[in-house]
Each structure stands twice: as C-alpha cells, then as structure tokens.
C-alpha cells in the first residue's frame, strides 16, 4: 500500500465530500456578496471529481483492491484481523468502475483514514509536507 497515494485520495475525497447540491444554478452575483458559497457546489464539470476519478483509474489493480479493502476496513465491515479477507473480497468484487464505486461512498476520506489507523498508519507527515 503506497501511503502517499492513499493520503492523496483521502485529501481529495474530503474536498469532494464537502460539496453541496447546487442551489442557485444561475448565480451571477459577486462571490463576496454570497460569501463564496458557490465554491462548495457540486457542479457537473467538477475538477475535484475528475481529478480523483482519473487518479483512482490510473492505480493498478492491486492498489485499487487495497483502496476498496481499506475503505471497508475503515467503515467497520472488517476488522484488522480480517484484512486478508477484505482484500480477497475486494479482489473478487473488482470491476472497471472502482472510482465510481468509491466516490459513491459517503465519508470516503474518513473511512480510508480509519482504515489506515487500523494499520497504525497516518497521513500526518504527508499533510505536513504538502503545506
């Protein structure tokens, strides 16, 4: 498991999860007038979604399998003692739509972080180096 790649997905997933439904599609106001709330709206051509989808699709099969298993572990579907079972089940369930599947999981970033924590890993050093 490449920790840096997982941490990148966690950061981007949190940006994606922070988005809200579009409530003013024809907004022509000045961003400062509406407190820049439009920046959180989930638009059809969302660059965060596109970047995250492309990144996950570019991962090799084993990396995608581990990412799914890690999300399941963090979500509580498996325990750390069942890690190999989670990986096996993720491999058996693997399709060409891994990115869509993962991005459809609410709180994906949190689940991945919990999965890392179960492995006694953290993104803390990665996040510090990105600043």
Structure description:
The protein has 131 residues and is mainly alpha-helical. It has one domain. The protein contains seven helices and no strands. The protein has helices at 3-17, 47-58, 61-75, 83-93, 98-103, 108-118, 124-130. The two termini are 23 Å apart. The model is unreliable at 39-43 (pLDDT under 50).
Order of helices and strands: HHHHHHH
- The assigned structural class equals mainly alpha
Number of domains: 1
Shape: globular
What is the beta-strand fraction? Answer: under 5%
**Cα distance, first to last residue?**
23 Å
What labels would you give this structure?
131 residues, mainly alpha
List the helices and strands and how they pair.
Blueprint: H1 3-17, H2 47-58, H3 61-75, H4 83-93, H5 98-103, H6 108-118, H7 124-130
Sum this structure up briefly.
The protein is mostly helical and 131 residues long. The protein has helices spanning 3-17, 47-58, 61-75, 83-93, 98-103, 108-118, 124-130. Helix content is 59%, strand content 0%.
